[in-house]
Amino acid sequence: MRSRRFLVSTLLVSALVAGLGAQKPAAPARSAAGGVNSITPAELKDWLSYIASDELQGRQIFTEGLGLAGAYIADHLKEWGVKPAGDNGTYFQTVKVLGVRTTSNASVTVDVNGQQRTFKDGEGITFPRNMGGGQTIAGDQIQFVGYGLQIPDKQIDDYANVNPKGKIVIWLGPQGPKTVGPESRRLLGARSRNAIEKGAIAVVSPPGGGRGGRGAPGAAVPGAPGAPAAAPAPDAARGRGQGAPAAQPPAGRGGAAAQPDNGDFTTVQRYDQPVTPTLTATDDFFEFLFSGSDVKYAELKDKATGQEALPPFALKGVKVTVNVAADYTIVRTRLSHNVVGIVPGSDPKLKDTYVAFGAHYDHIGYREAAAPAGRGGGRGGQSTRPTPRPGDVISNGADDDGSGTVAEMALAKAFALGPKPKRSLLFVWHTGEEVGLYGSRYNADFPVVPLDKIVAQLNVDMIGRNRDDKPTEANTVYVVGSDRISTELHNISEDANAKMAKPMTLDYEMNDPADPESIYTRSDHYSYALKGIPIIFYTTGLHPDYHGLTDEVSKIEFPKLAQITQLVYSTGVRVANLDHAPARDNKGPRVGKGKTGKIGTH
Predict the structure, then answer these.
(1) Structure letter (DSSP) for residue 294
(2) Do 363 and 325 contact (CB within 8 A), yes or no?
(3) Per-residue pLDDT tens over the stretch 120-139
(4) Which helix (H) or strand (E) holds 241?
(5) Which residues, in sequence order, are CB contacts of 153 under 8 Å at separation 6+?
(6) Over the stretch 345-358, which tens digit does the pLDDT of each residue have?
(7) d(C-alpha 342, C-alpha 357), whole Å
(8) Which pLDDT tens digit goes with each residue over 55-74?
(9) C-beta separation of 188 from 209 below 8 A
(10) 3-state secondary structure of 338
(11) Where are the domains of the chain?
């Protein structure tokens, strides 16, 4: 799962090619057993013991270790008879990671009661470097939304009496009101994304909060024709996003001058497609924008600086025209690979549609120096757990996302060697999740099967532990996003769990739109949700070893891992055997903290 902190590799080798020729354990002999009962703790442990071993050096993108992991997965898929879905009849989909240079000719023209000013990019208004393809957006419905926040636990709702759909949205106050603390930093950073989720056609904010700006990670919002309001764009508070500068090797090996030119942003997506503008502006811009309003910008800025109340209101007599115009030049190309396979369905009419399963097989690599004595890294870098071995420098990622990697292997085996459902099953092990959802974003823009043929995507990331190691969480799995795009998919999930021999506790806390960790946006399912595909994300939550040297195989709860995998299998079977695709009603998150059970459809 993505963090705001990640390691930077100095190897930058083409990992998969190296990995394919390296030594690795042989795949086991083909078994006659398939179906849900083939998913066992013992087999999951056997596979994870290699995937999370020191030999793979933490599976960081662009390293030999990730290549070894990909080859290991592919060997098993071949042994089980899973059909290759990658390039040239292989199990590997090449993911192109591009460094792009931007030449901007973008501008914003503001008309206030007949007086007009044009602000060029970099002169009062700033466009993200990854601003997307050329377009002109004109709007005379300009809505100021105060701080632009919705945090029910703090009785904050700046959209209580505001519908931003089809409007240009303005928010102020990077720090938010006084009642918002550090725990809400992700929500503060997601404000422009949330405005777009609600239908805004453009968003303008001050620098220092939210998205947009020349140096803001993930500055452009991927355009997704038909994507639901429940599938927002990535937020800058998560760390490196689509529009972020690429990871740079540290200086010291040849100095800064030896570093490659990564351009102005790094992306794996179609960077020339129109996206919803997210801009930042200076005082000069805002002073003119609010010059015809009863409440002037100076007063609003003073209130925002004092973190006082900022009531929303519509700006009258104002028209804003956003002109997006940029030329892009690719200055760097790096390659990684998704591992992809298909189990064909049994129904002649439905086998050209798919239930997709996903996990990410990369992790954050290794340190170039041992951790300080008594420290194993871990969540926020604050874990005081001892490292497993003296001098250990490898973040093995047994839970993140070794647990999801082997769970998806078990799913592929169960479907390949067991009864075939009506629909086909697509399995994708994504690369580069840790540095910006690279593999899933690439497959969402350059899919191995048509996106309109995917009826649902089920994603697993960190499903092998108990949240914060609490024994009371032993039977709990957190389910995220199941209701946002398809109510029917949510209810199928609930039914599948109820029919299990030992039903699990499905907790929807992390599906709450006010989830301070913004879990919904932080793993690979999100790339598919942005395209309007119904998703379910399964996780068991964070723990003290998250992104630390101590995320080891010895700490995985394998019976629980097997049980969750069986739940995903059972849910997938139900979706794959439906005579119709799960209905996409796009009603957004309705189950959240304290909610349980099915949702009524009337």
Answers:
(1) S
(2) no
(3) 999 999 999 999 999 999 99
(4) none
(5) 514
(6) 999 999 999 999 99
(7) 10
(8) 999 999 999 999 999 999 99
(9) yes
(10) strand
(11) 15-99+332-576, 106-324
For residue 125, the one-letter residue type is I
Residue 527 · residue 443 · CB < 8 Å? yes
Q: Please check whether residue 586 is in contact with residue 230, taking contact to mean a CB–CB distance below 8 angstroms.
A: yes
pLDDT of residue 202 exceeding 60, the answer is: yes
Contact yes or no for 524/462 (Cβ under 8 A): no
Please give the CATH topology (third level) of the domain spanning 15-99+332-576.
Answer: Aminopeptidase (3.40.630)
Please state whether beta strands 318-324 and 150-151 pair in parallel, antiparallel, or not at all (unpaired): unpaired
- Report the distance separating Cα 482 and Cα 480, nearest Å: 6
pTM, rounded to two decimals: 0.87
Grouping H, G, I as helix, E, B as strand and the rest as coil, residue 225 is coil
Residue with tokens 């592919």: 74
586: exposed, middle or buried (Cβ count in 10 Å: 0-12, 13-18, 19+) = middle
- Using DSSP, state whether 72 is helix, strand or coil: helix
Predicted confidence (pLDDT) per residue in 570-595, tens digit: 999 999 999 999 999 999 999 998 89
Residue 488 above 90 pLDDT? yes
CATH topology of domain 106-324: Glucose Oxidase; domain 1 (3.50.30)
Full DSSP string of 81-130: TPEE-SGGGSSEEEEEEEEEEEEE--EEEEEETTEEEEEEBTTTEE--S-
